[in-house]
Amino acid sequence: MAAELRQALTRLPAGPGAVLAGRYLSTDQARCDVENRLFTNLGASSFPRGLAAIRFERGTGSLPPSPSPVASVAGHRYYYSYRPGGVWRSWECAETIARWRRVTRRAADDGSCRPVWLAMKMAAASGQVEVLVPELAPDAEFGVRVVIHATPRGPRNAAAVSETVFASPALVVRGNYVQISPCDERCQAGEVVICPDADGPYPQISGVLYALRPAPG
Q1: Where does 32-186 show beta strands of DSSP type E?
Q2: Separation between Cα atoms, residue 85 and residue 80, nearest integer Å
Q3: Could you give the dihedral angle defined by the CA atoms of residues 37, 56, 98 and 33, in that order, rounded to the nearest 10 degrees?
Q4: Alpha-carbon distances of 194 from 43, 150, 152, rounded to whole Å
Q5: For the chain, is the Cβ count within 10 Å smaller at the N or the C terminus?
């Protein structure tokens, strides 16, 4: 199934400025790393090149009927959906928790989250991150919107960039600062957008961390 999904994804039309939205549902209600399920686990090469933005979310409610019979996995069924464009369908922003603007990522991209972690840590120490809700409940679910201000050298593919932002940890509030945290299973919705408008020789990161509530309907 994974191989068939990769083949189908590479056939999706994607021109300049293309946006791809992924949605994951399962009969297994245990929390999971949604971005990993939809994007990172498949690998950036599975998606059309040059995606300007990706969106992901954990869907709510019942799974749509399968177009053909499928076997359950450990007693559960799983649903993956991808479509050009679109917005979050299961969640909406309830409250802004924190925000930051044009945090410079000076460390070279090594394919891990470390350069982003270091940039956010330094930004928090210098007061570049505005925290509006100092504490999150231990089980609070949240969403993240991130803008990567790219240089002429890149990055150019939002699916690849998401691996360096969400691949293992997620961005959450700890006390009065924002940091990379391993509780990525609480991130129920996210968005990564690439804008080719960096102010200098290094990529920059803007973003907003939200508390979520279920979308009506």
Answers
A1: 53-58, 78-84, 91-104, 129-131, 142-149, 170-174, 177-181
A2: 16
A3: -10
A4: 18, 7, 12
A5: C
- Global confidence as pTM: 0.86
pLDDT: which is higher, 4 or 141 = 141
Contacting residues for 75 by C-beta, under 8 A, at least 6 apart:
none
pLDDT tier for residue 217 given thresholds of 50, 70 and 90 = confident
Encode pLDDT of 27-47 as tens digits: 998 888 898 899 888 888 888
Is 71 or 188 the better-scoring residue by pLDDT?
A: 188
pLDDT for 181 beyond 70:
no
Q: Where are the domains of the chain?
A: 2-89, 92-214
Which single residue is written with the structure tokens 């994607």?
Answer: 14
How high is the mean pLDDT of the chain?
A: 84
DSSP per-residue string spanning 66-95:
PSS----BTTB-EEEEEEES---SSEEEEE
Q: Which two tokens stand for residue 172?
A: 């959450």
Q: Does an H or E element contain 190, and which? A: strand 187-195
Tokens of 190: 């996210």
Highest CATH level, class, for 92-214: alpha beta
